[in-house]
Structures
1.
Amino acid sequence: MTERTLILLRHAKSDWSGEVSDLERPLADRGLLQAPLAGAWLDRNIGHIDLAVVSPAHRARSTWDIAAGELAETPPIRVDSRGYAASAGELLDVVRELPDEFDTVVLVVHNPGIAGLAELLTGAWIPMPTSTLAVLGLTGPWSDAGRQPAEMLATGRPPEDIPHRHRDR
């Protein structure tokens, strides 16, 4: 069976002080500090990422742009409108449609959908405050995601020491 890694990244803290639409809400100062820490953690612990699937919301795109700046190798990005205000089931559809040529994918989206997706895939509730990463190991093709429990490989919010068990491929 093929081993796949799905990285769930909730966008960094957003700024609610302005008079902009939810879709255009920027990152707060705290979010601007959180996003590069997430990227540095990914670079140190994951390394190669094949694809980033990102919500079209400004805060999600900004989170990924900043995080990706910390990576030695920047993966291609696909902005997917289904990632904005998506339910866990809608996000599962996004995951199941991923091309099997990609082994490691990061999904940068919003709560409550991202926490629901983590629970749907692992069978366990995983809190997903802003900038939290959840690294899941899946077996089989992407189209089978959720049909058997994913393995929780790491979860937490950088710079906290996120428990991680490195897997050799």
2.
Amino acid sequence: MKLLLTGAGFIIQDFLSFADDLKDKGVELTAITGVVVEKEKMQELADAHGIKELYTDYDQALAKTSADTVYIGVPNFLHYSFAKKALAAGKNVICEKPFTVKYAEFKELKELALKKGLVLVEAITNQYLTNYKELKDEVKSLGPVKIVSMNYSQYSHRYDAFKKGKILPVFDPKKGGGALMDLNIYNIHFLVGLFGMPKTVKYMANITRGVDTSGILVLDYGKFKAVSIAAKDTQAPITSTIEGEDGSIIVNGPANVMDSWDLYHITDLVKHVDDKVYPHRMYEEFVDFAQIVDNHDMAKVEEMLNHSDEVMQVVQKAVDDAGLELE
């Protein structure tokens, strides 16, 4: 898999912090593209990681690069346009979460990728983590699930600026900002990956200047209920609990990291699970992405797109229920 990286922001820098360890897994850092003001930073990253191609124009990058796959790490509101251009250029696409701001945009990308036989996957860490896969197998031991509660409350270092009137992308409704898209999206992937589509979706959001700075998402699965809290304006211990008639599972830390989890029978700790393959949360997904691309595994692509489809439906229902106007 030969990667074209988009942008030089936090997520790309975070990826590059461990990307050299992916080289023996078939991942080649081929190119990087961004805007002109990012050129100096991109050059630093390129020099540090042996990236030979550097572009300051995305269209030119797609036309000239020898990369076969585009990793989209730009702000949320650009995911759709960047992915669409990449697919049109015949490139495979790995798109950061959330896939798109609107469900209709995702559906268009999904149809285009499958029609052209191109890989299109969402970079959503928890679905690929060993700790999460093992938790999925263990949930059945809990008996009938009754309650799931999740909390990802993390005070944003950009929130103080927001209160003073400075609107950065993460708090800009016109750029797909807000707690639902930034933090609760991990919880939604966690829940949908375990239980599929809920029967109903309710999103009670705290909205300031058109953006949800925090909110409570309630998913009704019929026989059990799930509550998912995410906040960028408060701080609290980050944890998730799955409660069944025969036991419970407590996830330690955020759903995108899946650091470890504990299985309880009533109040007795049965086992502690921490089977991380690699310290960085993104490593396992990119190992899988390389295999998917190199093997042109379209069955896996369809499986993951169907998962993302359900997630995007939940997101759209939450947006509509809260009356958010994301662009």
3.
Amino acid sequence: MNHLNEAVILLLGLYLILLCRRVSGDQISGKGVVNLAHRQSKWTPLMQTSANLSDITSIRSSFEFRTFDPEGAIFYGDTKEGQDWFVLSLRDGIPEMQIGKADILVSVKGGHKLNDGAWHLLELRSEGKFVVLEVNNKEELVVGLHSKLTEEELTGKIRLAVGGMLVDKQKLFHPFQPEMDACIRGGHWLNLSTPWDTDSTWEPRPCFSEIKRGSYFPGTGVAVFNTSDLPGLKTEEAGITVEIFGSWTGTALSLQSTGFQYILEELDGHKDVKEVQLGLKEGSESVDLPREPATLTFTILKHSLVVNSKSELETESLDFFTMWKKGMLLTFGGMPGDSEATKSTHHLRGCLEKILVQGQVIDLDRALYKHAAVSSHSCPTEAMNELT
């Protein structure tokens, strides 16, 4: 990540002050429906439990799993306080198992893509020196390993975790992005029936009954990017383009730096237009934009900002290309610093089916900050129907 300039650091600092977290975790059943998204912690597991190995009669766990997310942590287990560990994740939608055991590190990826939005039955089991992943009652991955340094008989505790890891991410043979916008249900974890401890930052939210691809904003929360981390300028003539596809109301995006802010929002009472607001130290101005709910193209030129090739705001005093490269806050869903304790008419509500910057798809899991209420990869189909 590039270094933020002082202005962006100040803006982000003020924004993060407004965030609130739960001070303690709860206990939940591992058998119900659990949404793995909607939390601030990245690597800390959403839920975890432990048991004495002497109480375990079957090294077998199964659960149903559903996601559109191509990458993230699903299931983790370890013994010897993390000296021997295992993690199941997705990479490019394909299952990947990584195992650390004594002097051995193993990473194996294979099988069918699971990020199709359908429910899949996953089973993980140990068969001697082999770990087996079964998907929908068919073997997808079989990993075998052996070390002369390991003990044949294990004692002590076994730890299980969902949605993260209990060991340092530096131990991974093949690093990945841990955030997982997914749901699990019907879990059978070894032969354990004890409740699971949850991450203190997690706020339980229901799983959507039917989903489609996209990023869902429920009317509270934003996703903030530093522009210096995003694709940059190719040619001055073409500028820098941000494209949004979907259906929504409220603030689509904002651009902010010291003494400058740009807000693109649909205001109350303007059902047929969107209003672009440009605020500068010297004053502010706005123009009306015909509403096109299916797509929005925001183009940044050296001294001007253009929306859908129809509305242009110019300011010779600012060099937007230089500002983009040095770092501004590009925010989807609202303005950094807005109160997020309750839903706001200014915050975006709806589904952004796709976000492109310079033609590249932007993953909200890579944001500098994303509010826990925002779903990175799934939208409820019923919410889409309400907005169309």
